[in-house]
Specification:
Blueprint: H1 2-18, H2 24-34, E1 38-43, E2 55-57, E3 60-62, H3 65-70, H4 89-96, H5 107-110, H6 113-120, H7 129-142, H8 147-156, E4 159-164, E5 180-182, E6 184-185, H9 205-211, H10 219-235, E7 241-243, H11 258-262, H12 274-294, E8 299-302, H13 317-322, E9 328-331, H14 338-348, E10 352-355, H15 359-362, H16 364-377, E11 383-384, H17 392-415, H18 421-439
Parallel strand pairs: 1-4, 4-5, 6-7, 7-8, 8-9, 9-10, 10-11
Antiparallel strand pairs: 2-3
Helix pairs in contact: 2-17, 4-7, 6-17, 8-17, 14-16, 16-17, 17-18
The structure holds zinc ion (ZN).
Zinc ion is lined by residues 42, 44, 165, 388.
């Protein structure tokens, strides 16, 4: 009995030590990382007037607690009670508060908790009805003014610049926030075989061609139009390309001959076989990869968790190997294939980067393992991060999750004697900031925090 007791005591002591976040090393590293003004390489922050979270409440149009959950990753596999337009908060909350029962351990739930805790002083795990109602009121009040976004993004999350992917108007090339950096989303361009592919005019290369007096009647015309779109994106300040094709199709892109792609041009989707359509898309993707090099716009590619069949980053390796002048950025660390993504870097580190964007939100534990492994198999100047959210609370939560995750990994390596303090802090700073500034050197002209300013300089709105 005595032995069992001492064993239990010993185990509980070990269990306490096992939480890296309780160690002095972690606390020191985390404080240092919190002080790093971050370069966030990916978000979806809509113009303030059209944030997708707005609902009709008793007090009018605005954001509320239901918006914060509905417009988060939480709803991807957790059911949530729908908000009724004009409804009462209490009615919604009485049903919604039991929605979280099966989600407590999921990262899609947990990544938002730091926002409630740090921005509102609320422990969502133990929230009472009164606290929920007060939280709802405060969220509504905060979103009366876009200063809330500025405050949370630039001060609380300590983000200096944010690359923003405007997937709602891909070819509009407009920015809305002074801390925002334009991303050129090329996802839909691979479908340019027919104008009927573009229901949103702001995505349509056909509309772009018409607006710019360009003919678009052949594949050659189309290639000319795409080149002009690249020129416009570059002139508008875009720093990179982004594609989310992994949600729609396989990442296996074959370098098909032009004659095969030509067969699809001008025809509508229903008259094409799947193979013919894939030929066209593959052909255009290879041209986009070449234009990425030509215009020095590194290519952010969504890999992993999307259509699971076909989103393994290993499918990109032949295209990566054949295009050494293109800078490839493998998004989301290829989750769940984080080890595979690491080995791609190991073999092609001269022109490939890993972006851990969204990874801690998908699975905090996988992200920790990924950072541990990646730092062992590649140079530390290859890893970046991003928040990948569409409201202040999500951005704060995802940023805090990333800072914690990186700090835990570095602290563990320090305490195991695998990293010196100063080297660990340098790596943390690289992941959060310096690697993005090295890959996108034009951002150095837009840095503003060192000037002692409270806000970034304003940008002209159109
Ligand atoms: Zn995204």
């Amino acid at each position: 009995m005595k032995t069992i007791l001492s064993l239990l005591l010993c185990c509980s002591a070990v269990a306490q030590v096992a939480d890296t976040k309780q160690t002095a090393t972690y606390k020191r590293v985390k404080a240092e990382l919190d002080a790093v003004p971050a370069i966030d390489t990916h978000d979806h922050l809509w113009p303030f007037e059209t944030l997708p979270g707005y609902v009709e409440t008793e007090r009018g149009h605005g954001m509320n607690l239901s918006s914060i959950w509905r417009n988060s990753y939480y709803t991807w596999f957790n059911p949530t009670t729908k908000w009724t337009a004009g409804g009462k908060f209490e009615d919604w909350w009485q049903k919604a508060k039991s929605d979280f029962a099966n989600a407590r351990a999921t990262s899609f739930y947990r990544y938002q908790l730091p926002a409630f805790e740090d921005l509102y002083g609320v422990d969502f795990e133990k929230i009472t009805d009164e606290q929920a109602s007060a939280l709802n009121d405060r969220i509504f009040e905060n979103y009366r003014d876009q200063k809330w976004l500025y405050h949370v993004v630039t001060e609380r999350a300590n983000i200096e610049l944010m690359l923003n992917d405007p997937y709602w108007a891909r070819l509009k090339f407009t920015t809305y926030y002074p801390f925002e950096v334009l991303v050129f989303n090329v996802t839909t361009l691979v479908r340019g075989f027919n104008s009927s592919e573009f229901s949103n005019p702001w995505d349509s290369p056909y509309r772009f061609a018409a607006d710019n007096g360009l003919e678009l009647k052949s594949l050659d015309d189309y290639l000319t139009v795409i080149d002009r779109v690249f020129q416009k994106a570059k002139a508008a300040g875009a720093v990179c390309l982004k594609t989310t094709l992994a949600y729609e199709r396989t990442l296996d892109f074959v370098n098909v001959p032009k004659e095969r792609a030509e067969k699809a041009f001008g025809r509508s989707r229903k008259t094409l076989t799947d193979a013919e359509r894939k030929d066209f898309e593959d052909f255009i993707m290879w041209r986009l990869v070449e234009l990425s090099a030509k215009y020095d716009l590194p290519f952010q590619i969504h890999t992993g968790q999307a259509r699971i069949q076909g989103s393994n980053p290993m499918l990109l390796v032949d295209m990566i190997a054949a295009n050494p002048k293109t800078k490839f950025i493998l998004f989301h660390g290829g989750f769940p294939w984080v080890g595979e993504t690491g080995v791609i870097l190991m073999r092609h580190s001269s022109h490939v980067w890993i972006d851990s964007v969204w990874l801690p939100t998908l699975s905090y534990t996988t992200a920790k393992r990924a950072f541990h492994e990646w730092l062992e198999v590649m140079p530390s100047d290859r890893i970046m991060w991003g928040a990948d959210c569409n409201h202040a609370e999500g951005i704060y939560g995802a940023t805090e999750f990333t800072r914690r995750c990186v700090a835990e990994v570095l602290a563990e390596k320090i305490d195991r004697g695998e990293l010196k303090d100063e080297h660990a802090l340098r790596i943390g700073r690289q992941i959060l900031r310096d690697n993005a500034l090295a890959l996108f050197p034009q951002l150095k002209d837009r840095l503003w925090k060192h000037k002692g300013k409270l806000e970034p300089p304003p940008v002209d709105k159109d």
